[in-house]
Amino acid sequence: MAGERGEDRTFVEQDGVGVPDQLQRLWTPHRMAYIRGENKPDGDGESGCPFCRLAGLDDETALILARGETVFAVLNLYPYNPGHLMVVPYRHVADYTDLTAEETAEVADFTKRAMRVIRTVSQAHGFNIGLNQGVAAGAGIAAHLHQHVVPRWGGDSNFMPVIGHTKVLPQLLGETRKLLAEAW
């Protein structure tokens, strides 16, 4: 019978979606904001910079975990893994070489602190830490420096991201923020 799949599972046929197949779908509509480029800066100026805007919001709304004198730690809206955060200078600066000695030291301190907190909260097995300097290097927001801290676990690159091109995140960002901010 049309529309049946197996003995006890059914699906609704929808006009224009093609021939039904045996694949399951994981819907992630929140990713459309990223795909459409929503909230992406319209230029190099501070007025269109999401990091500059976040610094002026309250911590919970902005998903800020901690604030320092010259930098803050914030969750990535489009995380590679749960707990993926960024260390961001308050000052709108694009290049690592343009940081002051104080900013450089606090970026390093916040990175170490982030690693300790994530290990405590979620027992991460390892980390990817890095700066993408410039659009050619993969920076999504090249005009405002930000260092990624991505927790990793053995086996976290399983069939879902490798074959299915889908990342499964087991926790909402607000819940992740609360856990990390409390442990900070």
Features:
184 residues, alpha+beta, HIT family, subunit A, 6 helices
Query: Remind me, CATH topology?
Result: HIT family, subunit A
Counting copies of identical and different chains, the oligomeric state is single chain
Question: Care to count the β-strands?
Answer: 7
Annotated CATH homologous superfamily = HIT-like
Spatial strand order of the main sheet = 3-4-5-7-6
Bin the helical content: 25-40%
Protein structure class: alpha+beta
Domains, number: 1
Q: Which second-level CATH architecture applies?
A: 2-Layer Sandwich
H and E string:
EEHHHEEEHEEHH
Q: Mean pLDDT, rounded to whole units?
A: 81
Q: CATH class, anyone?
A: Alpha Beta
Profile the largest sheet: 5 strands, antiparallel
> What's the shape?
globular
Our Rg estimate from Cα atoms comes to 20 Å
SS summary, helix count:
6
Strand content: 15-25%
Extract low-pLDDT stretches.
1-11
The N- and C-terminal alpha carbons lie at a distance of: 56 Å
Binding site for substrate: 76, 148
GO molecular function, one term: nucleotide binding
Motif (Histidine triad motif): 144-148
InterPro entries: AP-4-A_phosphorylase, FHIT, HIT-like, HIT-like_sf
